[in-house]
Amino acid sequence: MGRTAFKRFQLPQLATMAIELKCRSSHQRQLSLFRAFSAVVRLVLLLLISLSLRCIRGRLRHCRRTPTILISIWWFFTFQLRSFMSVSTIPVICYYNGQMMRTKTDVTYEGRKAVIAPMDIPIECTFEELIGLIYSKTNIDKRRFRLSLNCKYPLRSGNRFQPFPIRDDSSLRRMLNLVNTTSIEEIELFIEVVRVKGLLNKSVGGHVDLFVRDNYNVAQPDYDCGPSSSPVPDIGANGDDEDCADDGGNDEDVDNECNENTDVEVDEHASSFGYFTQILENEHGIYVSAEAPCCDVSNHPDEDTLDESSPFNFHLPPTPQFEHVENLDNVVASAWTPWVPHSSGYCGGEFVIGQVFNSKSDLQDAAKIYSIKAHQEFIVVASSKKLLVLRCKKAEECNCPWKLRAMVVKDTSLFVINKYAGPHTCVNPCFNRDHHQLDSNLVATHIKSLIKAQFTLTTAAIQASVMERWGYQISYKKALDGKHKAIRQLFGDFCQSYTELPRLFLGIEQSNPGCVVIWKTCEINVPNTEIFQRVFWSFKPSIEGFEHCRPIMSIDGTHLYGKYKRKLLIAMGCDGNNQLFPLAFALTEGENTDSWRWFLACIRNGVTKRTGICVISDRHPGIMAAMSDPDLGWAAPSAYHRICMRHLASNFMTRFKDKILKNLVCKAALATTERKFNKHMHTIGRINSEALQWLEAIPVHLWALSHDGGRRYGLMTTNISEVFNSVLKGARCLPVTALVQLTFFRLNGYFVARREVGANRLASTEQFTPYVDAQLQGRVVKAGSMEIVLYDHVKGLFHVKLRRGRTYRLNLHEKNCTCGKTLIYGFPCSHMIAACQHRCVDFHLFVEGYYSTQSYYNTWASLFHPIFNEDEWPLYDGPTIVPPDSLQRMGSGRPRSTRLHNEMDVREGKTSITCGLCKQPGHNRRSCLNRNQL
Questions:
Q1: pLDDT at 731
Q2: Mean pLDDT across 503-532
Q3: Residue 313 DSSP SS3
Q4: How large is the average pLDDT for residues 26-48?
Q5: What pLDDT was estimated at residue 299?
Q6: Mean pLDDT across the stretch 688-706?
Q7: Closest C-alpha to 589, from 253, 345, 368, 884
Q8: What whole-number distance in Å separates Cα of residue 286 and Cα of residue 214?
Q9: How far is C-alpha 188 from the chain's CA centre?
Q10: Tell me, what's the pLDDT at 77?
Q11: Which of 97, 202, 320, 889 could potentially form a cystine with 453 if both were Cys, beta carbons 3.0 to 4.6 Å apart?
Q12: Interatomic CA distance for residues 649 and 409, integer angstroms
């Protein structure tokens, strides 16, 4: 080929290369020049080495100065190469103000506000210098945020990338060396900011709040080891443990490591509060596969959804999801490890040398699942923080070769299998209903998702779920222990929750100022430590909304079924739509005179000072004594006490055991007129005079609606408190911090839903609540068939006659009718509506203001504000709160019920027991008198 051909083919290529070189950035040109200069230097050095060897052999004897010249040239090029390298920089593309997105094959950086900043990093740059350079380049506040650096690291096989954390000078050197060892020309560095803990140092207000923290049972790899310069592909194959740490091992049998008696490991620094709020909300940001339906593989919240004007990140309460049971088989550490040719995690089948697990507990769970599926059992030969050795339980009897040995990877929490012999060759002599490896720890891991969705999960349901999953029937005790361990893992320790409770209230008060929290503790001889006795709390929206409710309050107590014996005291109001209104709560040692006096005093001093409040309760002696104490502010006329009709009838039934009399007592209590009341009381006296005397000993205004004077607005029971007790039933077995959080989130749910209803009715110009509208519509229909006789239009005296012949007298000026319903319920009866229509008077004027739509909206108008992260709560500097040992439930197993059962616990209409031999009611086969004869 001639010069023409050379120019024809070579010149266009040279021109293209020149254009490309011109278009490149400065750091790219510098990198290209550096590579070219390095190639020339290497070529010259090879030539010098060759000439030096030939000189040494004497082939250039005629030139005596040749060695000196060669050495000088060698020194010159070496010095120039070092000088060039000392001033060279590596091009790095920095991404910040977003989040890193991971899949199995690639790493990207996304975010609507993500910023790309090119930087030139000197080759000799240290990690501290890099951090300072990034802070200055990105203008990130180093006092409030710390940086998390990850570079896009190429894998050895395939076009695959994974994040590589940059945490020290060694990892930084490895990142900068990518431009020399790979074809990468620009290094991609992903920057994520993490808020510095303890930002708030001063107390704000007085008390509580909650937050959500990511805590999923999903594999999340720890890349602390990074792509080590000493890879681990030979691990286990030849027994080389250089890259695994061993503390010498513990060769004794420690079978209790994976046994029923193994204690569940709970992170002392993990907050039960953070996990509880996670349970009450839809779970987001779980690490998933790229092939999964959800493409969001970030474990970080979307910063675009945060309020720019707020320096805090708020976490919304999750809602329970009962979608699926977590798959324990997927305990995979990662889809990528520094030793790519080896498999990771346990996906069924036999184990493989080189498999990697997130932690020792994940490996133990995988071994248990493997043994359960294989219907074989193993024992633990050695177990420590860095070593786990398992072998078949029947190895000596049947010469089964199954054995597994795993060690921790140096400077990480990962465990890798380095020796394995399998599968099992032994045979079980008989069928077992239970499995040794199916212990309470594995049961706890299995039912975590079930506990998240349903706190009241029964032990029988746990047994059924385990049976369906693995085909083994576990004992009641093992299922109950698994439930207790799952609750402990999710919500924290019962004892530790009392210590965390003061700071929880501080967090709530921080974002919701105005909440009332009152403590009562006992001092002990231990310095800076006090024993918990009682705590009272009420949220500000409840305090403000109660001013617009009807002046009614229902109080009741319920048992807690956790590790410590406690009583939860509850005060409930009632809004204009006849719905419950949660007002105040208290944790006490029990129901007694002192605790009820303290609870009612806290309500009067911290929640409301309204006069004329009607308090409905049972006949507990502590409540009766507190309500009659004039110093507490609950005696008449400041407040009026009324008795729950249901509890009164229950006490009556327990004493006299007569359903007919019980029904007559209920009719007398519900009678709206004195005539009907006297009629039923007379009937009771004729049947049982002792029963009549028992009723007459109780002041009639406490339980009879006809003698109430309109104080209780027709509410005859404490059902509004009982209903909320059932709402909290699932949380009564949880630690106290979880119980407080549940009250916060449930109340917020009530306020959000009912505030929207009130706003919609206001927008549609509805005058009254749905409850009153329905009542008035029914009474208007009844009023159309009544005969009205006017007696005095000035005083508003009317006579109303029904078709059945019964007559009623009413006075419109005094808003009074002889039927008594207008006074009792607070809105007009059908007789008053008929009179108003007869005189063309608007009967809506006789409806009390508590039933208006505006009052209903004002009741639920106050807002609950989202709570800051736990690390942003004010610091608690008071004494350490500990629970009293005297209230701890003794023994293990199911706690004994402390409820005093009575006839209210028996379902109405339930038939009595019937003997299977003689078919007669009242006894069973064992106590049948005719047992021997038959």
A1: 72
A2: 93
A3: coil
A4: 62
A5: 32
A6: 94
A7: 884
A8: 9
A9: 36
A10: 56
A11: 320
A12: 69
Start-end of H helices in 177-321: 178-181, 272-279
Q: Rounded to the nearest 10 degrees, what angle do helices 689-696 and 674-687 cross at?
A: 140
* pTM value > 0.90: no
pLDDT in tens, 120-148: 888 888 888 888 888 888 888 887 788 88
Most confident among 76-85, 372-381, 912-921 (mean pLDDT): 372-381
Q: Which two tokens stand for residue 165?
A: 């954390």
Helices and strands in the chain: count of H runs, count of E runs: 26, 25
Tell the burial category of 417 from Cβ atoms under 10 Å away from its Cβ (0-12, 13-18, 19+).
Answer: buried
Q: What angle do CA 647, 652, 658 make, to 5 degrees?
A: 125
Paired tokens of 302: 């979307």
Cβ-based neighbour number of residue 286 at 10 Å: 16
Residues making up the chain, counted from first to last: 934
Q: What is the pLDDT of residues 69-126, one digit of tens each?
A: 556 565 555 555 544 444 478 888 888 888 888 776 788 888 777 888 888 888 888 8
The answer to whether the beta carbons of residues 239 and 418 sit under 8 Å apart is yes
Amino acid letter, 469: R
Query: For the chain, how big is the Rg over CA atoms in Å?
Result: 39
Contacts of 179-187 spanning 24+ positions with Cβ under 8 A: 179/31, 179/90, 179/91, 182/154, 184/154, 185/28, 185/31, 185/91, 186/27, 186/28, 186/91, 186/92, 186/93, 186/118, 187/90, 187/91, 187/92, 187/93, 187/151, 187/152
The token pair that represents 442 in the structure block: 């594995």
pLDDT(676) > 60? yes
Q: State the Cα–Cα distance between residues 596 and 555, nearest whole angstrom.
A: 10
Provide the β-strand partners of residue 758: none
| Residues whose CB is less than 8 angstroms from the CB of residue 102 and which lie 6 or more positions away in sequence, other chains included | 162, 163, 287, 297, 298
Amino acid type, 164? F
Rounded Cα–Cα distance for residues 471 and 375 (Å): 10
Q: 826 pLDDT band (50/70/90 cuts)?
A: very high
CA distance 489 to 893: 18
How far apart CA 107 and CA 526 sit, in angstroms, is: 54
CA dihedral defined by 754, 755, 761, 763, rounded to 10 degrees?
-160
Q: Does residue 240 have a pLDDT over 60? A: no
Q: What are all long-range contacts of 607-610, with beta carbons under 8 Å and residues at least 24 apart?
A: 607/516, 607/538, 607/542, 607/543, 607/546, 607/571, 607/583, 608/543, 608/546, 608/547, 609/633, 610/546, 610/547, 610/551
Task: List all residues 6 or more positions away from 84 whose beta carbon is below 8 Å from its beta carbon.
Answer: 34, 37
| CA distance from start to end of the chain | 122
Q: Are 163 and 223 in contact (CB under 8 A)?
A: yes
Q: Which helix (H) or strand (E) holds 117?
A: strand 115-122
Structure tokens at 747: 């109340």
In angstroms, rounded to a whole number, what is the distance separating the alpha carbons of residues 842 and 888? 62
Average pLDDT, the chain: 76
Give yes or no for a contact between 730 and 564, defined as CB atoms under 8 angstroms apart. Answer: no
Look at residues 416, 296, 433 and name the one whose alpha carbon lies nearest to residue 353: 416
The mean per-residue pLDDT over the stretch 880-908 comes to 65
pLDDT surpassing 70 at residue 901: no
DSSP line for 423-443: ------SS--SS-TT--HHHH
SS3 content of the chain, % helix, strand, coil (to 5): 40, 20, 45
Whether residue 559 has pLDDT greater than 90: no
Residue located via tokens 């504000």: 865
Burial class (CB in 10 A: 0-12, 13-18, 19+), 516: buried
